[in-house]
Amino acid sequence: MEVNKYIDHTYLKAFGTKNEIKNLIEEAKEYHFKSVCINPVHVAYAHEQLSDSDVLVCTVIGFPLGANTIETKIFETLNAVKNGADEIDMVINIGKLKEKDYDYIENEINEVCRAAGDKLVKVIVEICYLDNEEIKKVSEVVGRTQAEFIKTSTGFGTGGATPEAVKIMKDHVNGKEVKAAGGVRSKEDLDAMVAAGATRIGASSGVQIMKGLQGSDY
């Protein structure tokens, strides 16, 4: 797979304006990235602007804390799909994971998957708050669900993706795919994540990665 098709070109800052999203979309078109990953408020606009391109529209659900109710995440997902989202990146309830309420986690993922219909779902587990055993366990839980991907990070926690965590995920997620996000700022970073098992990269530095330059934080 070509490098550009690994990248979800991302802009999730709270203060993002339509102009920033427009620029993101134009960059994604130019480099033929896999998707743009944006906040839900921008989905309809991105869908309209990308309708004649090969770039998908990805959005986030329960973002960035994951502490919304399941019902809220379902509504967000239905609304995002209605507005034109092709892919859904949902944040799990990390507190429930810490409580070892694995049934809750599995259920909320499957409920979002049902709401997403035929749209691809990625599950964000926020590894910066987890130890290796928790990363292993949550990977096993995601592996039992209808989701297609497990994803390392929101980019808004205390840390982002690491090759070590990606490898744990890949080894325990029952054949599903891994998205590495947060702190992937260069071609070297991307290569390390892919070598560890990632098949998708979330980054705001997609253009810099393609140019082989060091980018800004995710």
UniProtKB/TrEMBL annotation:
InterPro entries per record: Aldolase_TIM, DeoC, DeoC/FbaB/LacD_aldolase, DeoC_typeI
Q: Which GO terms describe its biological process?
A: 2-deoxyribose 1-phosphate catabolic process; carbohydrate catabolic process; deoxyribonucleotide catabolic process
Q: State the UniProt keywords alphabetically.
A: Cytoplasm, Lyase, Schiff base
The annotated active site, in chain numbering, is: D89 (proton donor/acceptor), K151 (schiff-base intermediate with acetaldehyde), K179 (proton donor/acceptor)
Short name of any one Pfam family annotated for the protein: DeoC
Q: Do the record's keywords include Cytoplasm?
A: yes
Q: Which domain of life is it from?
A: Bacteria
Task: Please name the top-level EC class of this enzyme.
Answer: lyase
Instruction: Give the protein family.
Output: Belongs to the DeoC/FbaB aldolase family. DeoC type 1 subfamily.
Tell me what this protein is called: Deoxyribose-phosphate aldolase
Taxonomic classification: Bacteria, Bacillati, Mycoplasmatota, Mollicutes, Candidatus Izemoplasmatales
